[in-house]
Amino acid sequence: MDSIKKRKEFIKKIRFLFLIGAVILLLSACSAAILLTPDKTYSSSERRMLAKRPKLTKKSVLNGSFQKDFETFLSEQVPGRTHWVALQARILRMLGSRDANGVYFGKDSYLLERYQMQDFDWKQVKKNIRRVAAFARKHPRAKVLFVPVKSSVLAEKLPAFAEISGEEYFFELAGQKIPKERQLSVADALTAHASEYIYYRTDHHWTSLGAFYAYEAWARQMGFEPLAREDFEIRAVSDSFLGTTFAKTHTGGKPDTIHLYEPKNGQAFQLDYNMGEFQSDSFYDYEKLEGDDPYSVFFGGNQALADIRKDAGDGKQQDGKTLLIIKDSFGNCFAPLAANHYARTVAADLRHINIPASALVEMFEPDDILILYNSVQFMEDKDIRKLK
Length: 388
Description:
By secondary structure, this protein is of the alpha/beta class. The protein has helices spanning 2-36, 58-62, 65-77, 81-94, 122-138, 150-153, 167-177, 187-192, 208-222, 335-338, 357-364, 375-380; strands at residues 42-43, 48-49, 99-100, 103-105, 111-113, 142-147, 183-184, 232-241, 256-263, 269-273, 278-280, 305-313, 316-317, 322-327, 344-348, 368-374.
């Protein structure tokens, strides 16, 4: 009996040592793969930049920032990261969790971003608000429009007891600092259509329909009559879009449909991108529909500068007013609608421009200026410093 008992204990030890060895081997293999392969700078599956390898300095080690940043770097460079992220999200969902990786599993196949007060650098937020307020006071024709996040407008899609905070405080701060006469709002217009398909299920952006309702509200607040939906040919160009929110979980949600709006009156436009880098006669780059980010069908992605002119025929361009839109990616499907009301529309993305916004004003001499940002993207955007 003693020999049998000793044999069982020996087998247990062997199994335990084998398990420990397998774990060590797996960790060693992953570490070697990370250290020996070139660092990845962009994740096409998550559609975001990855953490860079931190620099080893005496100061960074002593204050703990190197250890923290290196841990983040390793977690983002691990082989098969996409599969691990998806597996983690699926397990959490099976266990009844209402969220994973900063995403709520909402009703009706909606994935909604989770934002909390502590997620934001409020020093940076207040600095951005001061800058946009100063710019608005300096330029009399400037208007400011912040787009609320999906989880705010579609609150009914959230799971029970989901926490959403941060945006209301931001709107309160912005409302206090930015001159009242320069503020535009689309929150009520979007909320009134919350039961419609105004935000993508798997992406943080509004849909073309959401952008259209915002365009209607903007036009009326600017004092002119917006075009009706019946004035556009609306075409579905993709029904398999899985956006940035899905990329954080790789589970849940339902593929989205992307619609494009073309005016029925036959109005043609000529677009010059990035000061002569390339030209086009369309707001849309259809080749992007087959790539990693179908939302890039609008303008071919986030261009630094898009100079849009109405075509008057015979190679000539219409005379008239100019609109300058300083925007983030939410402006990409808004600008083609607004461009119908101006002879020239210039859409600028400060994230990709190395000159201040005042230089754009001096260069294009706009009659109207629209600063259009999603609230959260504005709060986190460090390039707002160029708004001077």
